[in-house]
Amino acid sequence: RRKVIILLSPKTWTLIDCNYRLVLEQLSYRPSVIVYTIVLRAYGQVGKIKLTEQTFLEMLEVGCEPDEVACGTMLCTYARWGRHKAMQSFYSAVQERGITLSTAVYNFMLSSLQKKSLHEKVIDLWRQMVDKGVAPDRFTYTVVIHSLVKGGLCEEAFKAFDEMKKLEFVPEEATYSLLISSHTKDGKWQDALNLYEDMRSRGIVPSNYTCASLLTLYYKNEDYSQALSLFTEMERNKIAVDEVIYGLLIRIYGKLGLYEDAQRTFEEIDQLGLLSDEKTYLAMAQVHLNSGNAKRALDIIEMMKSRDIWFSRFAYIVSLQCYVMSENLDAAEVTFQALAKTGLPDSGSCNDMLRLYIKLNLTGRAKKFIVQLREDQIAFDEELYRTVVRIYCKEGMLEDIGQLTKEMVTNDSYKDNKFIQTFFKAICGEPLRHQKVKGNVASNQLDSTALGYLLRLYLECKDFNNLEEILKLLLETAGSMSVLTQLISNFLKEGDLSNVKALNDQVVRLGCSVDDATIASIIGIYGKEQKLKQAQDIFTAVADSPTCGKLIYNSMIDAYIKCGKPEAAYSLYKEAFKKGHDLGAIAISKVVYSLTTSGKHQEAKEMIHLSFQDNLELDTVAYNTFIKAMLEAGKLNFATSIYEHMLSKGVSPSIQTYNTLISVYGRGRKLDKAVEMFNLAHSSGMTLDEKAYMNLICYYGKAGKRDEAFSLFTRMQEEGINPGMVSYKIMINMYASAGLCDEVEKLIEAMQRDGCSLDNSTYLSLIQAYTKCLKYAEAEQTISCMRRMGIPPTCAHFNLLLYAFANVGMMSEAERVYKELITTGINPDLACYRAMLRGYIDYGLVEEGINFFEQIRDTAEPDKYIMSAAVHIYKYAGKEPEASSVQDSMNNFGIPFLENLKVGAKMKIP
Length: 910
Known about the structure:
Elements: H1 2-7, H2 13-26, H3 33-45, H4 49-61, H5 68-80, H6 84-96, H7 103-115, H8 119-131, H9 138-150, H10 154-166, H11 173-185, H12 189-201, H13 208-220, H14 224-236, H15 243-255, H16 259-272, H17 278-290, H18 294-306, H19 313-325, H20 329-340, H21 347-359, H22 363-375, H23 382-394, H24 398-409, H25 418-428, H26 432-438, H27 448-460, H28 464-476, H29 480-494, H30 497-509, H31 516-528, H32 532-543, H33 550-562, H34 566-578, H35 584-597, H36 601-613, H37 620-632, H38 636-648, H39 655-667, H40 671-683, H41 690-702, H42 706-718, H43 725-737, H44 741-753, H45 760-772, H46 776-788, H47 795-807, H48 811-824, H49 830-842, H50 846-856, H51 864-876, H52 880-893
Helix pairs in contact: 2-3, 3-4, 3-5, 5-6, 5-7, 7-8, 7-9, 8-9, 9-10, 9-11, 11-12, 11-13, 13-14, 13-15, 14-15, 15-16, 15-17, 16-17, 17-18, 17-19, 18-19, 19-20, 19-21, 20-21, 21-22, 21-23, 23-24, 23-27, 24-25, 25-27, 27-28, 27-29, 29-30, 29-31, 31-32, 31-33, 32-33, 33-34, 33-35, 34-35, ...
């Protein structure tokens, strides 16, 4: 026997087979079960199933009874090669013979079944193993726990896990990981964490799969600090981070508002070449959506498309959310259609589409969309129901609401939903007032938002009886004022003032009032719409209420101002002041400004005095308004006293304050004080703007201080302030008035270098400069240049030339220019007529003057100079009747006669 075993000891099955045959044929040896077992194992290891089965039958035929080892060898062979049907048949036969198998054999069979995901068979075999009293080992528990979890028998799995630990078998990391994942999916977060702590206490390093489960747990539990701590631990332990974990990290960053960190993580995944899963792309897109950045979310979606990432149903849902947020209706509708091809759209996506239609004010399309949803029998959730009901209420679709609500209440999950039940009781049951009498409906059982929707419904249906009942119920619920405020605000946004009035009237009739902010908004809208009477009615209804405060008074004052009633605004301000209301500096500023712009300077001054007398707290803007108002009123001394009062109260001036004061002192011809204000602003550390510089430059120019003006203009540019069109015009006009045409030309060149184009007024200043320095040809060339540039000259441009020629007695040139003006199609104005007549009268051209007057007398408006000049030249020519006729006309028009005109005043006396 020993020699036979030696013969069968080679490791290759072919040598064993050869030796085995040799033994049988030449040695006439009758093998024992041990020899047969060795041969069975050799055949089984290389998958010679048929030889194995033949050898086993041979063993039986020669009367050799198989033991547990031989049977186990056969079972392991079947298990190894996945012959599960044969394995189970053989196992049944073994059981009938009463042979008890070893733990190792059971492990082999259990492992084989599990590899093919035959978890039910694993569990059955495990139970038989336990019944037979075969002691499981660590491997057995590992396999069985896995199948129990996969088979949905989690309680048994945890029971087996506890047994395993009691037997002092240390579970593998994979077992811990599987059980942690199971607890996480079931929402048993603390149990999952306890398992993790148990695992770590045994020194087991978690795998990335375990970490992924824990990160999911922390994410769902909003324990983001622990999630980030775990990620740090993974880096420390050099645990490989896969795409799933990166995806979770992106979601966590998004929840924490760390949007840029999420984006950087996404880019890092891409750079590492790990970006392949649709879920990661969509996680990043959702983070951008949560941050309100639809464009970046859409960039992620486009990246998916460009990389041919497969679009799941969820991808279409997220894409739709992107298009809805970006208000891209066409793309949203196309995406919704694509989603519908994957199956019935979810209620959330339907709701997204409806919200987009509402946002774009496409009520008609929204209603058609709802009809389609109803035809497709989409299952409504509460949010979709709310949105649809909101549209139905706005459109007064009572029957549709009733039908939809009846369908909703058939779902048991909504039997305790206050919003839906409120609609059902209001529309589908008996009137709520009857239910209330019976005690079946208490105000705390009704949803205030639903009651607000019902108010809108009955307003649209003009059902004022039900409106009143719903309003009474609403006023008894908590948060009723916020609901009313929201409803009125919606009406105001839609410009539906009729419903605003109807609802407010009902509220007042019930002895209540909406909050001050809402009343103020209503008054403000009426004021904006120039509906003063309606604004006054709303104000009058609450004016005597002790709750009528600052907001309402300020809104009514605004309404008066917008409707051009500054005195009424002033009167109401005084009334509020007497009642002890401090309406604030802004209200004072508005009233003063409106009084000033309407020429009510005395009233504006009185109001300023009033605010000073009562020591009202004013801000810089209010003082600026006061100073500017008195500047426009011409009360310059009072304007400066306001500034002094401002300083005495410790209110800091702004650059606008100093700008206005420069104008105050400049207009009062106190140029030194204007310069002082400018320097004070500069020394105070304020950034002087172009307006401050040019304001002072203007007054330098008016005072004839052109050098100082130019110096300040240069300083402004040195300070880095580039002159704008207005600044250049001021400087050009100043030099043009003095006839300094070289300086004007230089400024125009500089202006053009700075990108400013010449306009009508710039050309006017240039012509003025040329005529002042007697450069008539250049002046005429300038008018020609205007025409070439497509800028039509006006009468004012020609008048400068006419006046220049007339002033020096070049009347033939003046007449030529006048004819050109007429030919151009320009209607001469009074200044043009005056310039021509002045030339004729000053140089004694009486006949020409008479002819000109008689040409224009029917078209020219009655004018003191023109008519006086005509009288003088008629008298000079001895035409007294004509002179008297013109003088009579002047008397009839109430036009005074100019006695001091002299014919030939500029004629040279020989």
